[in-house]
Design goal:
358 residues, alpha+beta, five-stranded mixed sheet, binds 2'-deoxycytidine-5'-triphosphate, binds magnesium ion
Length: 358
């Protein structure tokens, strides 16, 4: 296989950084974004922390009530997941322009195959800076980017100089990057694997190279054994697998908090037009429509409906979202601050229009 050039882009403290951007008075303060249990309205676990909050010992996954005890001066905010997903989709659209194939792996990270965009690794640094400034220009958010000859190394590289950093592992730098690294830092080596390896006298990635494939296969099974054998050598042939986007959505703030059906309908129509444009551009159909509501107290609610068959219709999208909005108004009494429309259950359009669409 020819040498590939793979980038891994990962946004810095993603949810928390978005909240800082939205509210500049948060800058310089420790901030944690908490998942909220929709039913009880109570705080669950921390989803994201900015670096100030990390210095106070907070981390994602930590229960929020514990975090509040540990760091009472930290700002705790409820997660606005749909909004972050919306921001994420703009970033992913931007990144797509910088590669031939892209694989989005989570809300804030993606692999980009940029092999055809440059002559070799000596040009990567320049390119990384361009990618970072494109993301910053589009969404005013920083990210960290790693480059390597495969996904394994690109991913490890992106975390080396986090936040707002970049790091490049060229093919001739793979060994010096890996050899002295603690084996626990190798992708896929968790606590239990680390223990088993330690019993074999393995502390560093370099030590792991001394263990035979047969031995690894007998201790970890054929598939995992082979993976460990390859990964400690910096080998990873896995392809960049483009994934279908799961949903297309738009969210917008209303001029004032409102419960006026006419005004909400108008917003829904215009958001639907945006979503529809993207569906057409990518040649896809949707089967599920959701209307999303951010209430006055910033809590988020959604109502969704699945249609009998996939469609690309703009009217169906808008009308369904409007009827969901009316249902919502009859059930909830809070004014609405932001409103959104999403289309999901995405499939590729067959190109055949049903008679009713002519
Ligand atoms: N996330 C979450 N729950 C977790 C971990 C993450 O909800 N247990 C969400 C919030 C994060 C986002 O996913 O902002 C991205 O996750 P990352 O692991 O990339 O973490 P961050 O972007 O927050 O921080 P970093 O700067 O380390 O990438
Ligand atoms: Mg991140
Ligand atoms: Mg991430």
């Amino acid at each position: 296989m020819e040498t590939r050039i793979i980038l891994h882009v990962d946004m810095d403290y993603f949810y928390a950084q978005i909240e800082e951007r939205e509210n500049p008075s948060l800058r310089g303060r420790p901030v944690a974004v908490c998942m909220v249990s929709a039913r009880e309205g109570s705080l669950g676990a921390i989803a994201a922390c900015n670096y100030g909050a990390r210095h106070l010992g907070l981390h994602s996954g930590m229960p929020c009530f514990l975090a509040k005890k540990k760091a009472p001066d930290c700002v705790f905010l409820p997660a606005r997941r749909e909004f972050y997903v919306e921001v994420s989709s703009h970033i992913m659209d931007e990144l797509k322009g910088y590669c031939d194939v892209m694989e989005q792996v989570s809300v804030d990270e993606a692999y980009l195959d940029v092999s055809s965009r440059m002559a070799g690794f000596q040009q990567v640094e320049d390119y990384l800076r361009r990618v970072k400034s494109a993301v910053l220009g589009r969404e005013r958010l920083t990210c960290s980017v790693g480059a390597g000859p495969n996904k394994l190394l690109a991913k490890m590289a992106s975390s080396v100089n986090k936040p707002d950093g970049h790091y490049i592992i060229a093919p001739d730098g793979v060994d010096s990057f890996l050899l002295d690294m603690p084996v626990s830092k190798l992708h896929g080596v968790g606590g239990k694997t680390e223990q088993t390896l330690s019993a074999l006298g393995v502390a560093t990635v370099g030590d792991l190279r001394n263990i035979s494939l047969e031995r690894l296969a007998s201790d970890f099974g054929a598939a995992r054994g082979k993976l460990l054998y390859d990964h400690c050598r910096g080998i990873d042939a896995s392809p960049i697998a483009e994934r279908e986007r799961e949903q297309y959505g738009r969210l917008a703030s209303l001029r004032t908090d409102t419960r006026q059906p006419e005004e909400l309908s108008k917003s829904i129509r215009s958001l639907s037009e945006d979503v529809h444009r993207r569906l057409i551009a990518e040649g896809v159909e949707y089967r599920t429509v959701a209307a999303v509501f951010v209430l006055k107290n910033l809590q988020m609610r959604a109502r969704s409906r699945t249609l009998p068959a996939p469609t690309q219709s703009l009217d169906t999208l808008a009308d369904t979202a409007i009827s969901l909005m009316k249902e919502f108004l009859s059930e909830e009494s809070s004014p609405i601050r932001r409103i959104g429309v999403t289309a999901s259950s995405i499939t590729h359009s067959t190109g055949q229009k049903s008679l009713s669409e002519y």
